[in-house]
Structure to design on (675 residues):
């Protein structure tokens, strides 16, 4: 992601963004790119509007009226219009994340890269950010990096699983679920026999219900006679793709 | 297709935005208030005009505000790292050299705001304590000198911090400043950025530093795009003339630490004795014209040697102005020689005090524990204490020497003048 955003120089290989070489045409790439880093800061002494105005200048939006219109539009899209005059220092984490999104879409980018946009947000803000990304994804490519499978389920049309620099899977969420279809089983057991039951199985979730425990596992064959085959989720598919050892480790 | 406009944001707009980021912060506002208070405390200096006030304020700026500038610009250089804005800023299509320059100028403007506050405080103090605006014309000159010095301090700190990637590196510029403050005994005058005669060379050095930083900082971020024309050459535009100017300062200067001028060495070999011809000199006055005693034939000359940074010096200048007004028609001609490492001090005092007589600068002055060693003219006139006045007759022979407090206070000087006029009426 850092290479695509031109922040990191590739040590080898090539990549293009909309036909622009990320090594040689960096400013061209940057001009059509919106980027929301995972860990980012903003200038606390500026207001929301001033922050976006500064970013607009960095995007070479030199016409004042045009820049202001874009800022207003971006603030409207991420629901920040009411706090445009508020200092960044006085914003909540969720609002700061929305300012981050607003700055990323200020240039109406063809490609929007967002890195862990919902990390650290409360559930309400998380849902709000997901909705915004869904909305933004209608007319542009959005690359969303996340460790939260529910983000993918809510937003993504295409999923790529990367592990140690290698692509494990590329496809639709449905296609991802299909990778473990007919191999996901649900077993109800009790706490005493749980340890023995888990041995040798690829577990994808565990849920306690009173004295009993409900676990989901991935297996080519029924792990126990009582096991019930269930519809796979993206969590199941993710763990299945990553491999039991990697996923649990 | 991308909807971003073609062309670049005007640099001025970027600079404004950069300046705003700092100006809006509470630390700078507090610093502005402190700066104004500092100006108030140093601005109420003695003198009929604002000459000493302006000079003292300029010196204060060149030390304290310059140290603040070092601190401020070092932090500005590392701002993105400290605010975690690096990824956001650097992912935008703004060339690195423009970011480097805009941030520097923005930070420098913030420092200039401190300077403005300092001078406003000083001028207000001067006006409050003296009840007049006489000599306020001296402030702009000192403001200009300080602004240039702050540019030098800012550029050095910014460059070091940016290149090293840590504001601590910028502190090296601050250390240099502190060494110059305590290094009068072992540093040549050419090392001092705040002496007027060195300003041009150090300014160009600052231009070189900023140009170099703009060219090489994160240069890989450009990809295949060549650097802009100005960033390709700015370093050279600064470096080459700076080297020439430094060479000229050393070559034409007089400094026991570095190189002595044969002319000034000759001046210092003269000796002043009562009844003997006054030692000669040829020094630039406040307008840059060379002045010597031979330009004043038939006059009763009051050759005054003084430190322009002292209250005694300013009191003597005011006294000389008064004496010239009263006895000028009888052929009394004051000639003041400022003994100061900063060659701009004489001009500042002359403007501030509204002096019409020649106020010369002894460009061979240097730091010395004894007054007689402080400059070639001080050596020639065998000065033991500042301020000093030698009263000559109309044939340039020394007829009276008055040193210390008697030079500006008490009847001695005026008595000597009257005696000359009585003995040698026109």
């Amino acid at each position: 992601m850092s290479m695509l955003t031109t922040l990191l120089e590739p040590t080898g290989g090539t990549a293009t963004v909309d036909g622009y070489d990320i090594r040689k045409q960096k400013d061209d790439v940057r001009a059509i790119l919106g980027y929301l880093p995972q860990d980012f800061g903003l200038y606390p002494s500026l207001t929301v509007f001033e922050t976006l105005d500064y970013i607009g200048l960095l995007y070479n939006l030199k016409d004042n009226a045009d820049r202001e219109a874009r800022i207003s539009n971006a603030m409207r899209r991420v629901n920040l219009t009411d706090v445009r005059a508020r200092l960044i220092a006085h914003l909540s984490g969720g609002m700061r994340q929305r300012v981050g999104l607003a700055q990323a879409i200020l240039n109406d980018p063809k490609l929007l890269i967002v890195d862990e946009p919902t990390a650290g947000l409360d559930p309400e803000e998380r849902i709000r950010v997901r909705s915004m990304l869904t909305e933004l994804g209608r007319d542009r490519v959005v690359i969303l990096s996340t460790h939260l499978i529910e983000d993918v389920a809510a937003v993504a049309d295409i999923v790529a699983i990367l592990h140690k620099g290698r692509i494990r899977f590329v496809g639709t969420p449905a296609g991802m679920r299909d990778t473990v279809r007919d191999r996901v089983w649900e077993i109800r057991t009790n706490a005493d026999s749980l340890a023995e039951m888990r041995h040798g199985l690829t577990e994808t979730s565990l849920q306690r219900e009173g004295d009993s425990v409900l676990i989901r596992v991935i297996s080519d064959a029924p792990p126990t006679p009582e096991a019930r085959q269930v519809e796979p989720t993206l969590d199941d598919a993710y763990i299945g793709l990553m491999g039991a050892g990697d996923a649990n480790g | 297709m991308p909807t971003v406009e073609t062309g670049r944001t005007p640099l001025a707009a970027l600079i404004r935005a950069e300046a705003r980021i700092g100006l809006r912060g509470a630390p700078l506002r507090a610093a502005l208030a402190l700066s104004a208070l500092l100006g108030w405390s140093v601005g109420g200096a003695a003198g009929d005009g604002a000459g000493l006030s302006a000079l003292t304020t300029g010196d204060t700026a060149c030390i304290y505000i310059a140290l603040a500038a070092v601190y401020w610009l070092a932090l500005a250089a590392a701002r993105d790292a400290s605010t975690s804005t690096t990824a956001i800023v650097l992912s935008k299509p703004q060339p690195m050299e423009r970011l480097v320059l805009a941030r520097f100028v923005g930070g420098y403007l913030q420092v200039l705001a401190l300077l403005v506050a300092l001078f406003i405080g000083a001028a207000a103090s001067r006006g409050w304590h003296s009840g007049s605006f006489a000599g306020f014309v001296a402030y702009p000159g000192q403001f200009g000198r300080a602004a240039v010095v702050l540019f030098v301090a800012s550029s050095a700190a910014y460059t070091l911090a940016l290149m090293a990637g840590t504001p601590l590196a910028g502190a090296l510029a601050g250390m240099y400043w502190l060494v110059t403050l305590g290094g009068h005994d072992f540093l040549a005058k050419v090392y001092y950025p705040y002496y007027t005669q060195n300003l041009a060379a150090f300014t160009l050095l600052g231009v070189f530093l900023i140009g170099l930083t703009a060219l090489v900082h994160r240069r890989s971020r450009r990809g295949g795009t060549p650097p802009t024309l100005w960033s390709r050459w700015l370093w050279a535009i600064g470096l080459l003339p700076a080297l020439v100017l430094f060479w000229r300062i050393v070559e034409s200067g007089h400094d026991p630490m570095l190189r002595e001028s044969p002319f000034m060495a000759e001046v210092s070999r003269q000796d002043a004795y009562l009844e003997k011809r006054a030692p000669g000199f040829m020094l630039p006055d406040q307008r840059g014209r060379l002045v010597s005693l031979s330009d004043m034939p038939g006059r009763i000359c009051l050759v005054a040697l003084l430190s322009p940074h002292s209250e005694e010096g300013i009191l003597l200048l005011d006294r000389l102005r008064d004496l010239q007004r009263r006895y000028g028609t009888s052929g009394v001609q004051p000639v003041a020689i400022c003994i100061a490492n900063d060659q701009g001090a004489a001009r500042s005092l002359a403007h501030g005090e509204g002096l019409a007589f020649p106020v010369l600068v002894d460009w061979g002055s240097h730091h010395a524990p004894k007054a007689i060693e402080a400059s070639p003219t001080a050596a020639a006139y065998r000065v033991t204490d500042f301020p000093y006045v030698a009263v000559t007759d109309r044939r340039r022979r020394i007829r009276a020497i008055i040193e210390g407090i008697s030079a500006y206070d008490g009847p001695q000087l005026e008595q000597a003048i009257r005696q000359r006029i009585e003995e040698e009426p026109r």
